[in-house]
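Lecture 7 notes: from sequence to structure.

We start with a single chain of 152 residues. Read the sequence below before looking at the structure.
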Amino acid sequence: MAWWEWLLDICGALLLGCVLYGAGLIVRRRLLARNGGTFELSHRLRRDVPERGWTLGLGRYSGERLEWFRVFTLSPRPKRSWSRDELQYDGRRAPVGAERASLYPDHLVISCESAEGPVELAMSVSSLTGFQAWLEAKPPGTDWSRAKGGEH
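Now the structure, written as tokens:
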């Protein structure tokens, strides 16, 4: 076989791999949405550099938990999950600097406290309304900060 035939075979295999990966992402998103509505939710994984460390993802409410899935992976399992009674909403702000390019358009940065420390999420205004309603719907007396003796 000539060198150009090898090159065509390699290009064809790479193209097929890209198409299969894209189809896998579409199927995964459909399967995630089938078990409850999903919404665009970014999570700041690294806090060591200001305005950096954001990863695009999908959020899904699953009973008493908020599950976060990375966008560009084929894994059906959430990368992070927070229990409703361990999250406390602290406020919101507009993205600044490099965050504007890292996040979905028109998303707000949400600050929360959890039993494990601060959590930063980014979501749309309509998703924030749903998030706040989900947090407020928790049963009374399940505030983790009081259970740990903290004041917020």
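The CA atoms of residues 31 and 149 lie 41 Å apart. Keep this in mind for problem set 3.
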